[in-house]
Structure formats: structure tokens, C-alpha cells
Write a structure and sequence with these properties.
- The chain is α+β, with helices and mostly antiparallel strands.
- It has one domain.
- It is about 25% helix and about 15% strand.
- The chain has a two-stranded antiparallel ribbon.
- It is globular and about 30 Å long.
Length: about 100
């Protein structure tokens, strides 16, 4: 197991998509972090979660997605208002259309 530090605005689904490349990874996070009571559990910036060393196969492309996010410095974050990055869509009413990604 290894540690993952939660970023401001991330929820459990964001972490699952970022780390495991698929939203169903949320069940792995719940299993590996007993203090998390439910999918709706609020996370705080800086909170440490336990994640698996290897990315398990959860769908036909999840490993590709997780690797892409890591390789390109993309943090999945649907709760934080961020300025758009070139080509990511546009900023409107507190979220980015066509993607909720923040470059690190």
C-alpha cells in the first residue's frame, strides 16, 4: 500500500478516477480506508488516503487513464474552481466545461 494526499476540492470519486482510472475504484478506497464511512464522505485537503501499489484492472481502459493522468500531471478535481487550461473548455459558473482537470 502507499499514501495519496487529497487535494483541495477533491471528493472520493475524483480520487478514484485519478488513482485508479475508473470511478468504481471508490470501492477499493472504501475498503482500504476504514475511516471512510461512505462514498459521500467529505475529504479535506492534505488528508492522507491509503491506495494500492498496483492499479487493478477495473475496466478495459482504466489503467491507461490513470497512467495518462499521472504522466501528464493531471489531478481530477470536480469541486474546486480553477482557471481553464488551454484546450480544456471554458470557465462558467464555477466549473470547467468539457473536463474537470487541474494541472499540477
Amino acid at each position: 500500500m502507499k499514501a495519496y494526499k487529497v487535494r483541495y476540492g477533491q471528493n472520493l470519486m475524483d480520487v478514484a478516477l485519478h488513482v485508479y482510472g475508473d470511478y468504481t475504484g471508490v470501492f477499493l478506497l472504501l475498503e482500504d480506508n476504514p475511516a471512510l464511512e461512505a462514498i459521500e464522505t467529505s475529504l479535506t485537503a492534505g488528508q492522507t488516503l491509503v491506495i494500492r501499489e498496483e492499479i487493478p484492472v477495473l475496466s478495459d481502459r482504466n489503467i491507461d487513464y490513470a497512467t495518462f493522468y499521472t504522466r501528464n500531471g493531471i489531478v481530477v478535481n470536480s469541486g474546486r474552481k480553477v482557471a481553464p487550461v488551454a484546450g480544456s473548455g471554458y470557465y462558467e459558473d464555477g466549473y470547467i466545461e468539457e473536463g474537470y482537470f487541474e494541472r499540477t
